[in-house]
Design a protein that fits this description.
- The protein is mainly α.
- The protein has one domain.
- The protein is about 70% helix and about 0% strand.
- The protein has twelve helices and no strands.
- Helix 2 (about 30-35) packs across helix 11 (about 200-215) and helix 9 (about 150-165) packs antiparallel against helix 11 (about 200-215).
- The longest helix has 26 residues, at about 220-245.
- It is globular, with a radius of gyration of 22 Å.
- The chain starts with 16 loop residues before the first helix and ends with a helix.
């Protein structure tokens, strides 16, 4: 008897950059598995930059940086109280500086975001490679982080839509869309309010995608990948909330 020859299964079809973006929302495992073939993350980076700059432009035209800066100060009573103690002339000068800082930081926010994501990608790379004996490259880690961040584009588009149909009187870049728990918390309770703003639908969506992404690239179980991603996020939230409460 002759044994039947085994026909090897065909390799998975490679995805185009556009297909990767679409599949991130509808079939994320396909996108992240394809990162084994190519870890290019230029397209999601460009889309993030475009969406972010579009939101800044619309907010500038519809609300204005002066009003946005005032809304931001309303969430920082300590800083607002210091300004109120100044003479009208000095307060006006300080507000001009605050508005300038707000406008500049808004327009350069994509660069700031990229630096932040590089740090996140590096931390997750070290965690999986040294803590869980995975073999992930830096580009793969960055690709997972960048594609996982794509829900932020949806959030930016919703914020633009909200500005288009409203006055935007209470708009802030820190909380452009009511997609988190902040409406349930008094803003004067700074620590809890900061945590509530971080418990955001789009943030959780991003974290879940990152967990799926690293599980597709490594032999680490999906539950463990989720634990790593959500664990680092919890550390970040508690740290940034504590720092924010101390200076608010």
């Amino acid at each position: 008897m002759t044994s039947a020859s085994v026909v090897p299964s065909p390799p998975p079809e490679s995805l185009s950059q556009v297909e990767r973006v679409v599949d991130t929302f509808v079939a994320p495992s396909k996108t992240f598995t394809d990162l084994r073939r190519s870890a290019n993350w230029l397209v999601p980076l460009l889309l993030t930059i475009i969406a972010t700059e579009a939101l800044v432009f619309v907010a500038d035209r519809k609300v204005g940086f002066e009003k946005i800066a005032e809304n931001g100060l309303a969430l920082q009573p300590k800083q607002a109280a210091k300004l109120d103690q100044l003479s009208p002339e000095d307060r006006a000068k300080q507000m001009q500086l605050v508005v300038k800082i707000t406008s500049v930081s808004a327009y350069v926010s994509p660069a700031i975001l990229l630096v932040f994501l590089v740090i996140v990608g590096s931390i997750l790379l070290a965690t999986f490679n040294f803590g869980m004996e995975a073999q992930v490259t830096f580009n793969q880690s960055m690709a997972v982080v960048m594609y996982s961040s794509l829900p932020g584009i949806v959030k930016a588009l919703l914020a633009i839509l909200a500005l288009a149909v409203s006055t935007g009187e209470s708009f802030t870049f820190q909380n452009p869309v009511a997609s988190n728990l902040s409406p349930l918390v008094d803003p004067s309770s700074h620590f809890l309010y900061s945590i509530a703003t971080q418990v955001d639908l789009f943030t959780i969506w991003t974290l879940v995608l990152a967990g799926i992404g690293f599980s597709c690239l490594t032999k680490v179980k999906r539950g463990a990948c989720m634990a790593v991603v959500f664990g680092w996020w919890a550390v970040w939230v508690l740290g940034i909330s504590a720092i924010g409460a101390a200076f608010s």
